[in-house]
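Appendix B. Extra example for self-study. Work through it before the problem class; the solution is given directly after the inputs so you can check yourself.
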Amino acid sequence: MLNRIFHDQLQLGLAQSAAAALAALVVVLLARRRAIHLERESLVAMARGLVQIIAVGSVLHLLLRGPRWTSVFLLVVMTLAAGATSARRAKHIPGAFRVSAWSIAMGAGSVIALMTWLGVIDTSITALVPVGSMLIANSMNTNGLALNRFRADVVAHVGEIETALALGAEAKTSVAPYVQASFEASLIPAIDSLRSLGIVWIPGLMAGMLLSGARPVYAAIYQFVVLAMIFAASGLTSLASTFMMPAHIFTAADQLLLQPGK
Amino acid sequence: MPALSHLDDAEGSHRPVLRAEDLTRTVNGKILVDHASFTVQTGEILALVGPSGAGKSSLLRLLNRLDEPSSGTVYLENQDYRQIAPRELRRKLGMVMQRPYLFPETVESNLQFGPRQRGQTLTALEVESLLARVGLEGYASRNVANLSGGEAQRVSFARTLANSPSVLLLDEPTSALDEASKAGIESLIGEIVRAHSLTCVLVTHDRAQALRLARRALLMEAGRIVRQGDASEVLHA
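Solution. Structure tokens for the complete assembly:
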């Protein structure tokens, strides 16, 4: 209905936002009848979300018209932001940001570079940035899961780790079971996504390609390509971070820095 | 339980093997160990005694460098332990923890763990010999999940002995055991030390146990060594 009234894309977008916000407002009013007051919080969150996303859209609008190196710049910024975000999952691990940023750069970066070189990812900014950001975002999640699990396992098994050290084991040997467990656990979402593709969910990229008129079979195949790339990038990221992380939780004299309560 | 304090009177056993010099450890401004200095003679059992939180276990952890001293150092056979590779130091100063922390495999694979870190493998005969020393003959293929608390602690002893340490550091090895197992482990400590002329530093909050096992004792309070000397004098004062 709205697309019959508004022919300008920007006006249509604002009208669609108003309609979606109206649905949210109904929920707020229903909650109010149950004496649950979400009015202020919801309004502020919606206004803030709208302003933020329009700001990001405007910046992208400018950047996507820039030269091709802009996409490299954008992907590097995204990698650094992803490193900072997933490092928060590894509180009290020294060097967590450095490990995260390098792991994501190695995992997502190498897959993006290889796939761009092979022609799987188009070199245009409008293709490279969205697909690259998907790989970086998923690598970030995998890295966060790996670090979080590793930290939790180490803190829960300080006795076993220090027993191994006391028996003359190298630091990396003493945490080897927890490195393996965190690597395996971090890849569960990527494996499940691949396994359930098309049965449980139709991913956003495929839906977008269909909406923009791509052939359904090609859209489906490309979606598999993206998920396989996500799996590869996530796996490499997790391999890199679980390889680097143990060195950061021991001193030079193989003393465990992570202890319960930290 | 017979008195075992005569064990450390073995002939020619008055050479210092371990010397702590002004050891201090401070964490976030809290002093855990405060300028501790003492000597351990070859073949003796030295008891570190004191109430919970006195710093006994913290001091023991400093001895095999599981923690780093804020100041001071330890000399092992007259060599500053910071000059010894941590893995070699820990092999020489075998530690038995309060809880056994067995690796979830068989008894034998636990015994093989230490030697394997140096690229060595114990023969079946050596494994049986170690198990015999802790009273667990025929236990090699058992899964550690099926052991009692006392048996698990015996395996933990055997696992440490598999590294042929020159000093045993025992951190409250009986505190998590029932009375019967506790008496068994106490006898075991005495037998092992006597049979192999081992030197032993025993952390315990149990003064009676310290008197049964050790001739010398250090009494700790709030991180400081407040008395040291003959066990009966230190603990009865």
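Self-check: The radius of gyration of chain A is 23 Å. If your reasoning did not lead you there, revisit section 3.
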